[in-house]
Every structure is written in structure tokens, then in C-alpha cells.
Amino acid sequence: MNDRIVVGAALYDGNRLLAARRSAPPELAGGWELPGGKVEPGERCEDALVRELREELGVEAVPLERVPGQWPLPKGYELRVWKARLVSGEPKPLEDHDALRWLTPDEVWSVDWLAADVPAVKAALALP
Ligand code: 9L3
Ligand code: MG
Questions:
Q1: Cβ < 6 A, ligand 1 pocket
Q2: Which of 90, 89, 125, 110 is nearest to 32 (CA)?
């Protein structure tokens, strides 16, 4: 069962990592995250990731390897992250975000990541 799993994408353009600023809910607004969202009942995590990137950013992407680890979220949810490759489209903040940034390696820690995303981003950056 993929109950209470949230998937996030470490989406790269060369060495730049995409960060998305949440516009909702109010308690998370302004925080930056790896784009993604809740896995639906019966849905595979990788399928959820593709669906979320389509809905939130208007892009087609393919999941690559899973980033080792999982990180606790409120309400018993858990964040899992996949590296992902952009196939087509230019990401736009269509849903739940009000800004996007492609961060170079020296800019990665210049945004205010959500708490769960800090270790997730560290783990993603640690991958070759
Ligand atoms: N969340 C945290 N980091 C992330 C993502 C994609 C999501 N990288 C948290 C925010 C919400 C919950 O997970 O509390 C569900 O996310 P969404 O379905 O509202 O995107
Ligand atoms: Mg989301």
C-alpha cells in the first residue's frame, strides 16, 4: 500500500535543481520544495510523480533513480524522492506554487526549503 506517501522530484537541468515555492496551504506558503504530492490509493509512486509534475508544472518528466531515504511529514505522511529528467515542456507554477527557480549548486541553500525537504535535497545532491 502506498498509503500516506508523498513523492517529490529532484528535477535537473544540467546541474541546476528545480525548486518550487508553495502558495498553499497558508502554513506552508513561501516555503520551497521539490515539486510533487500525495500518491493516490493504488497508484505507483513513479506514476504519481509523473502525474504531479504534469499537473503542477505542465511538463512531461521521467523518474530516474530513487534518492535513498524517506523523510517524515506531518500527519503520518512520508516524503520519498526520485531524480527525474525533463522530457518536454518548460516548468510553470500552474498549481500550488507561485515561483520556480533553477538553482545552481552554489544557490541550492539560498532558498528557504520546507523542513522535510532539507535532508531530501542533501540526499539528492549526494547522488553521483
Ligand atoms: N510536502 C513536502 N515536501 C515536498 C512535497 C511535494 C510535499 N517536496 C508536504 C506538503 C504537504 C504534503 O506534503 O503537507 C502534501 O503535499 P501536496 O500534495 O500538497 O503537494
Ligand atoms: Mg504538490
A1: 6, 8, 28, 33-34, 36-38, 73-74, 77, 79, 96, 114, 116-117
A2: 110
| Average pLDDT of the residues in 25-33 | 97
Rounded to 5 degrees, φ, ψ at 54 are -65, -50
Residue-wise pLDDT for 61-98, tens only, equals 999 999 999 999 999 999 999 999 999 999 999 999 99
How far apart CA 32 and CA 22 sit, in angstroms, is: 6
Q: ipTM higher than 0.85?
A: yes
Single out the residue of 1, 9, 76, 7 nearest to residue 39, CA to CA: 7
Q: 57: which residues sit within 8 A by CB, 6+ positions away?
A: 20, 35, 89, 91, 92, 93, 94, 100
Tell me the pTM: 0.97
**What distance in Å separates the CA atoms of residue 15 and residue 112, rounded to the nearest whole number?**
20
Amino acid type, 128: P
Q: Which ligand is nearest to the CA of 73?
A: 1
Separation between Cα atoms, residue 126 and residue 59, nearest integer Å: 25
